[in-house]
Structure formats: structure tokens, C-alpha cells
Specification:
By secondary structure, this protein is an alpha/beta fold. The protein is 27% helix and 25% strand.
């Protein structure tokens, strides 16, 4: 696993051992996601709520995002995220939290995220929908925010206050891209 492009291009990232611990987004899926949002990254604040290795937020920073908050409930994952942020020389642009997603969102009061990555453990669909609900209810999304949800569900993820912009399948992985932008403000 590596950073695909940008300032940290080619940097190899560390992951936790064992697939049950974390399930990193495979490179093909990561490339597809970033091709969908590439022109929306510059200067945006990123939230990677189920960080794992931190690769999604670090890729966004490498491509021009302003700063990133990366959260994971596993202390081991947080240690990996810190090492990866240092290795990519993007550590100064990151805020790394060792917390569950609920506490992280509740503690983010007043922040506005432009890009959000949600990739909870597969089979934990209620975590995904709860995180989406909290993002909207706590008013944590900036104008024209983009939320990328990765899941194993064969239908788009939906949330009040957000609309589905795109839904794609990559093998067993399903990506839903949601936004709070009005349709007439889309590119």
C-alpha cells in the first residue's frame, strides 16, 4: 500500500497485521475514489473517521487538502497512523484521535469538513448510518461537502440532508458518494 500521487507520491504505508484488525482500501478502489473527487480536494479539511492506516486522509493531503483529522478506536491503529503521517511528511497537517467515532464527532463541534471518508468494519452498517446522521445533525459538513462511504452493501448508503451523487461497485466493495451540495451547484 502506497500514496498514489502528490507530495508524498510513492511512500509505502504501514498497516496493522491481520485482516480482522483493519481492512485497508485496496489500491484500485482508492484510485477510483480519488479520480471521483480529485478536483475537490485543494484546500479542503478532511475527516477520516475509521482511519485504519490513515491512507485515505494522507492521500488527500498529498493531493492538496489543507488538513486532516484521522480517528480510530484502536490504539495500535493510531500508532500506525502516526508513523504513516510522519513517513509521508504530512504529520503537521494531521490531527490524530484515539477515539470511537461518536466521541470524535461530538468533540468536533464547530468544525466544518469538506471531504469525509467513512469505512467502518464491514457488517457494521449501523455505524455507517449513525456516523452520517451525526455529521448532518451536528452540522459538521461544510458547503458542498463530499462524503465517501465504503461498505459491503449492494445498495447506496442514504442519509437525511445528503443526496447520492454516485454509487459504484468494485468487486465486493461498494462506494457511495454523498453530498450536501444542491444539484445546480454540481460541476
Amino acid at each position: 500500500m502506497r500514496i498514489i500521487t502528490g507530495s508524498a507520491r510513492g511512500t509505502k504505508l504501514e498497516t496493522l497485521a491481520g485482516e480482522d484488525v483493519t481492512r485497508p482500501t485496496v489500491e484500485r478502489v482508492k484510485e477510483a475514489i480519488f479520480s471521483m473527487i480529485n478536483f475537490e480536494l485543494e484546500g479542503r479539511e478532511v475527516l477520516d473517521l475509521f482511519g485504519g492506516s490513515g491512507q485515505m486522509a494522507l492521500e488527500a493531503l498529498s493531493r492538496g487538502a489543507a488538513k486532516a483529522t484521522i480517528c480510530d478506536s484502536s490504539r495500535d491503529a493510531v500508532a500506525v497512523i502516526k508513523r504513516n503521517a510522519q513517513k509521508t511528511k504530512l504529520y503537521e497537517k494531521t490531527k490524530i484521535l484515539s477515539s470511537d467515532y461518536k466521541a470524535a464527532l461530538n468533540g468536533a463541534k464547530g468544525e466544518k469538513f469538506g471531504i469525509v471518508f467513512l469505512d467502518p468494519p464491514y457488517g457494521e452498517y449501523e455505524m455507517l448510518t449513525d456516523a452520517l446522521d451525526r455529521l448532518v445533525r451536528l452540522d459538521l459538513l461544510g458547503n458542498c461537502a463530499v462524503v465517501i462511504c465504503e461498505s459491503d452493501r449492494k445498495e447506496p448508503v442514504e442519509a437525511n440532508g445528503l443526496r447520492v451523487r454516485r454509487f459504484s461497485r468494485y468487486g465486493k466493495v461498494y462506494i457511495t458518494v454523498l453530498t450536501n451540495a444542491p444539484e445546480d451547484e454540481e460541476e
